[in-house]
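dumping these here so i dont lose them again. two proteins, back to back, each one seq then structure tokens. dont judge the mess
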Amino acid sequence: MMPGMTWTAPAIDRVYEPTVGDERTMLEGYLDWHRQTLLWKCAGLNAEQLKIASAPPSNLTLLGLVRHMTEVERAWFTIRVHGRSPNPVYCSDERPGADFEDIAGADPEADFARFLAECQASRESVAGLPLEHTFVHPRTKRNISLRWVYLHMIEEYARHNGHADLIRERIDGATGD
């Protein structure tokens, strides 16, 4: 994306989270609402605006949040749930914070495409698994259920969407839930 160009948001289908339904429907609905909320907070901004830090010395940016959630989606739904070897998108052992740190030369179009692809991969990765499916966390050695992963991801998005709301307000004054 050329500097100054506005990022063209993908179709944002920010459907309100379900208020009735079975547990899986509720968890998936809330998670999808939060995924779409993050995209909504980024819509209409140009590449430079997506890279504006919240408040120095923090390196928290809207684009960094999208890159971070791409990593988190992959880590929980694709790698940990299935016990696969780590295969991060942006980060490495040498640069564990690269999702937030390597923003200056980042390409928002590519990063948003990765985010959307990772969200879809997450959905597909766990589609056939029951919420009771468990795995052992590689670092903590705790037994964790897929149900817990959904709850954790909702919490992770909710926290970061709060950050996104403040960053967006700083950039252009836009606010909203």
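---- next one ----
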Amino acid sequence: MKVPLNSAVRLISPRVTALITTVDKQDRVNAAPYSWIYPISYNPPLVGVGVGGKHKHTYINAKETGEFAINIVSEDFAQQAVNCEEQHEPGEDLLKKHGLRTTPPEKIKTPRVRESRAVLECRLKDIIEVEGSDHVILVGEVVAAESAGGLEEIRPLMHDSGKKFRSVGKEIVLNRRR
């Protein structure tokens, strides 16, 4: 079956969902849900976050301050996290509006989301802008990480497409030849 090219990226779904927190120059917190998040390198530990354009508060804040936090969303606060994608003015506290709280970071200025069971604090290393693309990629170096445990404890929300999300299923162990 042929897949329309504008739907081809859905073949690599589901993807982990995270609330990306940033602060602006006035130290106001912004939080927005993203699922285009992926590892880039183990050493140094680098992650990429695909952000839907240069007009997004996440992009603007990360570029201005040089940092962001990746707060993994779990099933128990999934709707609250997804509600943070609403259009808003800079400085509007969407976390508070949707019943979420912040907690102090370890190595950066940007606060964490208290409800998140796994967090990566990142310093911005690069911004990749591909001509003609509708997304830009924030490349962050992980400078602090914390987790409540493995996937069973974290229970990350996985984004399939549109309104469709999934939770983590069964574990499969396979031999790898390296």
